Every structure is written in structure tokens, then in C-alpha cells.
Amino acid sequence: MFVTISTSMDNEEFVRTALLNAGVSVIVEQKKKSEDPLKFSVPANVVSLSVLLHVVETNPEAFNGQVRLQDGRTFTLDEAGRTQLRDLLATAMRQPRPSEQPAPVWWMYFMPQIGKIIEEIAGLVHWYPRALGEGRRILTRNFVALILAIVVGVGILTFFGRVSGDAFVFVIGTLLGYIFAFLSKYLGLTSGE
Known about the structure:
Blueprint lengths: L1 E5 L2 H13 L5 E2 L9 E4 L4 H13 L5 E5 L5 E3 L2 H16 L16 H49 L5 H22 L7
Antiparallel strand pairs: 1-3, 1-4, 2-3, 4-5
């Protein structure tokens, strides 16, 4: 609906502020001269018309102009025109609105694909801890096999006299220290710092 109002600057600002505070989107045309009337358009709905009528009726003598609806009907802002606008508003408020089905949200069309992605993510959430645990078991098993191979190899060399007993004890001590360091950092027994 297109509105043309002639009034003072204070009342123009009052009209704009009242419409904006009511949540009505207002598109104001630029004035060419300061004495030109205020021209703006607002959506043609019950709220816009109700707020506009209320603003004008706060001080009817200060406002003159006209309201033009989309269908071409024009109403002046004098007493007769305001009465016609009130009647139009009352009629519009009595009309039942057809129930509208809400438009589907854009992502509703992709629900099957989204479901598949969520299932994949859930599978990864279950898979990752198991894979991590399996990896740690394999690493620990290989680590224990390597330690046992070293101990057995050095033990056999000590048995045949190729390595002294002191060297065997040194190797065992070094391996035990490495095992404790491995267990504390790798398995999370300490903070690892």
C-alpha cells in the first residue's frame, strides 16, 4: 500500500518510528524539497493498516494525505477516509485466513542422503576406538616379541660365552628401563611430558 502524508517533520519521524517499531517494513521515497509530502510504501496487511490508522488518529488534525491500496482504491486521511479505512480493517480482520501448509525446508529434500551420512559418521564413531585399540594391541604384541627376541638372543650368546654376564645384565636393565618408559608414555600411565 502506498501512503502520501503531509505533516510536520516531527510527525513524519513519528510515523516512521511507529511503523518500524511495529515490525512493518517501510520504503520511503526521497523528498525533492523539504516541503514535499512524505511518501512511503508498506505491505498491505492488517498490521500495517492498523498501525498507520493508530498513528494518524493520535493527532488527526496534523495529518492529511491519502492511502492507495494495491487494487487501486484510494482513501483520504480526513474523517470520512479514516472511517472507510477502519471499516476495511474491521472487514479484513473478520475474514478467515486459509490454513497454509508450511513450505518444506530446503534440506528436507536431502533427508535420505543426510541419514546415510549420519549412519556413516556413527559407524566411524564406533569403529575408531576399536581400530585404535586393535592398533595398540598389535604394537604391544610386536614390542613384546622384539624384547623377547633380544633377551633370548643375548641369553643364548651369554650361554655359549660370546657375551659376558655383565653385558647380559646391562641389556636386561636397559630393556626394563625402556619397557617402563614405553608403558608410562604409550599406555598413558603418566602425562607423557
